[in-house]
Amino acid sequence: MTKLILASGSPRRKELLEKLQIPFQIKASNSDETISDRLSPEEAVVELATRKAMAVSRQHQDFAIIGADTIVVVDGEILGKPSDRDHAKNMLMKLSGRTHEVFTGVAIIQNGQASTFYEKTDVAFWELSEAEVERYLDSGEPFDKAGSYGIQGLGSLFVKKINGDYYSVVGLPISKLQRLLRELKLSW
Ligand SMILES: Cc1cn([C@H]2C[C@H](O)[C@@H](COP(=O)(O)OP(=O)(O)OP(=O)(O)O)O2)c(=O)[nH]c1=O
After folding, report:
1. Would the pTM of this model clear 0.80, i.e. be above it?
2. Where exactly is the site Important for substrate specificity (predicted)?
């Protein structure tokens, strides 16, 4: 069976891939995450996921490599991970009281060939007070996450409604990924 590598430093992605109960290794990828603003959100996440997987694939040609990328989109604006506390506060105030989209792109590179897909989930937030946001920032949770929140953590308290795959918001659309891995004969 082809050996599998998850090209990610995200502990959430590792935990989610473990659900498939297939062996894999982890190699964090440090590919360039800047993207052209001409790309649509779906094109951007697929491009970034492919870049992450490709970067690892060059050193591990005999493996199948999985890369993923998650972004938040509100009013057509792409929100990645915050650069500092003010940036995070700004993002959270933007998300307050409205619905945003979370896009996760996934790429599997095998024998130089990329198989890709993306998933879109709508997430509606309650109206957030500034005090609530400040308290959330104090928790430290927002800083390594797209859109500056974690639906799986304290950020759950902001969520009014979700339409789509919860696991895609956390960083890996695991059921769709399993189906693609099966098609590629990489999973049961
Ligand atoms: C919206 C949201 C994002 N996230 C996370 C998923 C991703 O890990 C992160 C977005 O950053 P990414 O650049 O997609 O991933 P990463 O830098 O964490 O890991 P790597 O590139 O090595 O694979 O935000 C949550 O954990 N919960 C959420 O609710």
Report:
1. yes
2. 12, 70, 152
Q: Measured between alpha carbons, how far is 21 from 14 in angstroms, rounded to an integer?
A: 11
- What pLDDT, in 10s, does the model give residues 20-47? 999 999 999 888 888 888 999 999 999 9
Give 78 Cα–ligand 1 centroid separation in angstroms.
14
Transcribe 71-114 into DSSP letters: EEEETTEEE-S-SSHHHHHHHHHHHTTSEEEEEEEEEEEETTEE
With tokens 């800047």, the residue in question is 34
Range of the domain at 14: 3-183
Cβ–ligand 1 contact at 173 (below 6 Å):
no
ipTM value of the model?
0.98
